[in-house]
Predict the structure of Glycerol-3-phosphate dehydrogenase [NAD(+)].
Amino acid sequence: MSPLNTNNIVQNNDSPKFKVTIIGSGNWGSVASKLIASNTIKLPSFYDEVKMWVFEEILPSGEKLTDVINRTNENVKYLPGIKLGSNVVADPDLENAVRDANMLVFVTPHQFMEGICKRLIGKTRSDAQAISLIKGMEVKKEGPCMISTLISQQLGVNCCVLMGANIANEIAVEKFSEATVGYRGNREIAETWVQLFSTPYFMVSACQDVEGVELCGTLKNVVAIAAGFVDGLDMGNNTKGVSTAKEVYEVLKHKGWLEMFPLFTTVHEICTGRLPPTAIVEYSELAPKSPLTSGPNLFQ
Ligand SMILES: NC(=O)c1ccc[n+]([C@@H]2O[C@H](COP(=O)([O-])OP(=O)(O)OC[C@H]3O[C@@H](n4cnc5c(N)ncnc54)[C@H](O)[C@@H]3O)[C@@H](O)[C@H]2O)c1
């Protein structure tokens, strides 16, 4: 049995203990910190404290944004009125913020990522895992580069993604939403990310397809229809595009995959009137209870 060791964080039972740092503190980064902090404080496999790297700004009051976040527990500029969790610690020093973390959550606008990655080369733990919540891609002369690829290549870390039809301000006030973790091969780490982000109002499942999930994060029209139904039920706002739901349904039916994609199936059945709009918040009961163990074809 190894004792708790802060250089190579392990618990007595040899399972890793996770220390999370969020790189980014805008609208979505702040909501991510709220989700994560609510889980690290109750899950024994995580350290309670969640560091959040803040691109320092001076507020009109003359105060530093970081100081105000740490004093009030609110990101008054990017997510005013929402408590992040007393275990969130804002840090303006990027290197310091990532130094001890073995779980790195990247959530800045994508145009800053190349510069951030350059600053982080050689500064992250060798056993760190990463996840990107960033939509968009780096477009270069050689072709497009997904942000998860940029992070993996520059920092030499395994990088998952978390994407969904997510509107930060709605999730901040705990309106129902869902997201998918895209992972490459390691189911255990995918399960850890699912645990870290899941709350009763933020349903997270996992799929062994980083690029597919990352691309779908931007091509999310069908999921947006679902949010439109939720809007009709006075639970949120979003955009709509109905014929795609039918096309997707037909592909899934042809492949025999309807049960594996209950959201798409339910959206189409609501569009055709076979199900009432209220089915949108019930469809998850059809989904595999443990997406990492009982959703067979999703993970092969
Ligand atoms: N907001 C949403 O509802 C939402 C939902 C899902 C995904 N996303 C994705 O999350 C990512 C972050 O979006 P957001 O809404 O949090 O962004 P935002 O526009 O709210 O935040 C901008 C952030 O960038 C920082 N910043 C400004 N200049 C910078 C610089 N030079 N270097 C580094 N950081 C700098 C700001 O301090 C701020 O923290 C994006 O890729 C977005 O597509 C956003």
User: Anything to note?
Assistant: The chain has a mean pLDDT of 85. The two ends are 33 Å apart (CA to CA). The CA atoms of residues 56 and 92 lie 6 Å apart.
